[in-house]
Design brief:
- The chain is an alpha/beta fold.
- The chain folds into 2 domains: 32 residues, no CATH class; 313 residues, Metal-dependent hydrolases (TIM Barrel, Alpha-Beta Barrel), CATH 3.20.20.
- Helix content is 40%, strand content 11%.
- Strands 3-4-5-6-7-8-9-10 form an 8-stranded parallel β-sheet. Strands 1-2 form a two-stranded antiparallel sheet.
- Helix 11 links the parallel strand 9 and strand 10.
- It is globular, with a radius of gyration of 21 Å.
- The N terminus is likely disordered.
């Protein structure tokens, strides 16, 4: 029996392969796959910021304090995810599971939850190896367990890195107690994607309540800003110089008001910084950020502050934020090489994706 993959492989060898492949996508019930070319070169696009859930985890939560946690079906993986990627022009997506509610669980449940997440992610990637890679979201409340989970996910399941929150039960991840996890991430050359959760560790109760959903709009970038800044000022990035951390949502407010952070350790007598380099040096070496800034000027500013080599494409799929792929493609201030790097080149290297 000829499979869809066989059809598309054959189509790709013909002079009109792109058009025929697009038609076959329709035959097999998916949208035509948009392909991105830059300066006449086919560009591989990689999305660092893809959410998902596995509702099956609810079975582990019966008769626990987490039994009321809901898992929205529209966030689960299915054909619609690939359809969305095809429409946008995304070749690969790095999948991660956020919200991090399991940070509050006991060790046994945390181990079971992360194992279920990771093995389900691995199964999905195995079904679609040419479209997805996975990031584990380990149980950071037990740093030794988190290190073990990261090693298992990377070495046994083929995951390409980790995803973490901006804090663990209101503790900064720059606290030395979390060093076992950071050390393991450096050892395994595992990039760590940080995703916030409404700055719940920073804002007093109802401090961002009211119109505009400010917990998300202001709180998320704020949490990312504080997370990245503490990794610098508390010396975590110096202890682990091989560590690569990716901040969601354009790195929060850090690149937008970098000047004040840049001089803080020099002009504030009580700053007590442990950092060995300037913040801008970390932003051009160990810290990367995604493209979720939504305007041409914001993107231009990011490139000016951190460089195209530290910027990666992110979507927040399946949430309905504006897509920034065309923002990058249409940026007059970027060279073709810089565009290729941002839309996927930087991540193919970081996530070890074979194209």
């Amino acid at each position: 029996m000829v499979t869809r993959r066989d059809f598309l492989r054959t189509a790709g060898t013909t002079a009109t392969g792109g058009l025929l492949a697009a038609r076959l996508e329709n035959v097999f019930g998916q949208s035509p796959r948009r392909e991105i070319s830059i300066g006449g070169r086919r560009a591989t696009t990689v999305d660092i910021h893809g959410h998902c859930v596995f509702p099956e985890v609810s079975e582990l939560l019966d008769n626990t304090e987490f039994s009321s946690i809901g898992f929205a079906p529209w966030q689960a993986l299915g054909p619609n995810r690939i359809d969305s990627m095809n429409q946008r022009g995304i070749d690969f997506q790095a999948l991660s599971i956020n919200r991090y509610w399991w940070y509050g669980s006991d060790r046994e449940l945390a181990a079971d939850v992360v194992r279920l997440h990771d093995e389900n992610l691995a199964a999905w990637v195995a079904q679609h190896p040419d479209r997805f890679v996975a990031l584990t979201s380990p149980s950071l409340q037990y740093p030794d367990l988190a290190a073990e989970q990261l090693e298992y996910a990377m070495n046994e399941l083929g995951h390409r890195g980790a995803s973490v929150a901006g804090h663990c039960n209101n503790e900064s991840l720059s606290d030395p107690k979390y060093d076992p996890f950071w050390a393991k991430a450096e050892e395994l050359e595992a990039p760590v994607f940080m995703h916030p959760n409404n700055a719940q560790n920073l804002i007093r109760e109802d401090g961002l309540a009211g119109r505009g959903e400010l917990g998300n709009i202001i709180g998320n970038p704020l949490e990312t800003t504080v997370f990245l800044t503490r990794l610098m000022f508390d010396g975590t990035l110096d202890k682990f110089p091989g560590l690569k951390v990716i901040g969601a949502h354009g790195g929060g407010y850090l690149p937008s008001y970098l000047g004040r952070t840049e001089v803080a350790c020099e002009v504030r007598n009580n700053a007590n910084c442990l950092s060995e380099k300037s913040p801008s040096e970390y932003l051009r070496s160990q810290i990367l950020v995604d493209t979720m800034v939504f305007s041409d000027e914001a993107l231009r500013h990011l490139v000016a502050e951190i460089g195209a080599e530290q910027l990666v494409y992110g979507t927040d799929i399946p949430f309905n934020w504006p897509d920034t792929l065309d923002l990058v493609l249409n940026a007059s201030y970027l060279s073709d090489d810089e565009k290729i790097a941002i839309v996927g080149g930087n991540l193919t290297t970081l996530l070890n994706i074979n194209t």
